[in-house]
Amino acid sequence: MDQYRFNPEHSQMIVNAIVEGYHDYIEHRKDRKAAMKISSAFAWTKGNFIESRIAEDSAGEGFTYKKSKAGLTWDYLQFIHRESKILFLVKNASYFNENAFSLATLPGETRPSGKRRTYLHELSKINDALEFPDIPPARKGKEKVEQLTLFMPEEQIKDELASFKSSYQEFHILTYKLDEAYQVAEIIHYLPNPKDNVAYMVEDLSGLISGATLTDEDLEVFAKESSEEIVDPAAFDIGIWEEEQTND
Predict the structure, then answer these.
(1) Phi, psi angle pair for 204, to nearest 5°
(2) Confidence (pTM)
(3) pLDDT in tens, 183-218
(4) Which domain of life is it from (predicted)?
(5) Residue 182 belongs to domain spanning
(6) Rounded distance between C-alpha atoms, residue 147 and residue 106, angstroms
(7) Is the dihedral of CA 214, 50, 206, 100 positive or negative?
(8) Per-residue pLDDT tens for 46-85?
(9) Considering only Cβ atoms within 10 Å of each terminal Cβ, which end of the chain, N or C, has fewer?
(10) Who's near 233: CB < 8 A, 6+ residues apart?
(11) Which of 192, 168, 5 is nearest to 85 (CA)?
C-alpha cells in the first residue's frame, strides 16, 4: 500500500494540524467552562476545530476543502488535493471500524422502504479501480464498533453523489485516537475498499505526533459535567434512502 502514501511533508502537516486543532478545541472548552454555568455540549465541536485547523494549514500546500453533511444538522469538511485529485476526510477512531468501515444500521424499528446505503460507502466507490492486496489485513481483536446511521432521501445529495467518481481519483480516511490521558496518541492513514468494506492501512503516522501532552488545567475540561453520555456527531454516518423505482 506504499504507493498510496501521501507526500511526507503533507502527512506531517496533517498530523500537526490534528494535534494543534485538538489543542484549539481544549482552549475553547476551557474558556467556555470558565464563562458558562454549563458547557458540556461544546464536546461536540472537537471535529470542527481539528478540521478547521487542517483547512487553514493545508491552504498553501495545494489543498482545498468543501463542506458536506455529517448529519441532519451538522457539517464536516472534505479535503481535496487539487493536483492529484485525492479526497480525504478525518474521523475519530472511536467511531471507526477498519474491518467494516461503513455499516448501515437504523435505530428503532421503523425502516423506510427502498434501497439503503451509506454516504461513506458511496465515497469509497471512488476507489473502485484501485489495486488492493489479495489478502485483507488481519482483523484486530478489538471491540466491534457499531456505526450509527441517520437516513436521508437521496434527492437531497444526489448531485454530490454523482460527482464523486468523475471528480476524484482516490478517497482516503485518516483517523485519530485519544489515549486514556485524553491526548492524541495515534493517527492512521487508511484507503477504504468498496468491494469488501475493509479500510486498508496505508501508513501509521503516529510516529510523527509531537506536542500532544496536556496539562492538568487542560484535563479539567474532561471532568464529568452530567451523568448523561454525550454522543459525538462523528459517531454517525449518513444513510442514503433511495426510493424503489417501479415500472408501470
Answers:
(1) -90, 115
(2) 0.81
(3) 999 999 999 999 988 999 999 999 999 999 999 999
(4) Bacteria
(5) 2-132+144-221+231-236
(6) 9
(7) positive
(8) 889 999 999 999 998 999 999 876 555 567 899 999 999 9
(9) C
(10) 44, 47, 70, 71, 74
(11) 168
Euclidean distance between CA atoms 207 and 43, whole angstroms: 27
Q: Is 192 inside any structural domain?
A: yes
Confidence of residue 174 (pLDDT cuts 50, 70, 90): very high
Q: Return d(Cα 166, Cα 173) in angstroms, integer.
A: 19
Q: Write a three-state SS string for the chain.
A: CHHHCCCHHHHHHHHHHHHHHHHHHHHHHHHHHHHCCCCHHHHHHHHHHHHHHHHHHHHHHCEEEEEEECCCCCEEEEEEECCCCEEEEEEEHHHCCCCCCCCCCCCCCCCCCCEEEEHHHHHHHHHCCCCCCCCCCCCCCCCCCCCEEEEEEHHHCHHHHHHHHHHCCEEEEEEEEECCCCCEEEEEEEEEECCCCEEEEEEECHHHCCCCCCCHHHHHHHCCCCCCCCCCHHHEEEEEEECCCCCC
Structural domain contains residue 246: no
Q: How many CA atoms lie within 13 A of 96 on its CB side?
A: 24
Q: Are 175 and 96 in contact (CB under 8 A)?
A: yes
Answer whether residue 244 is part of any domain. no
Length of the chain in residues, anyone?
248
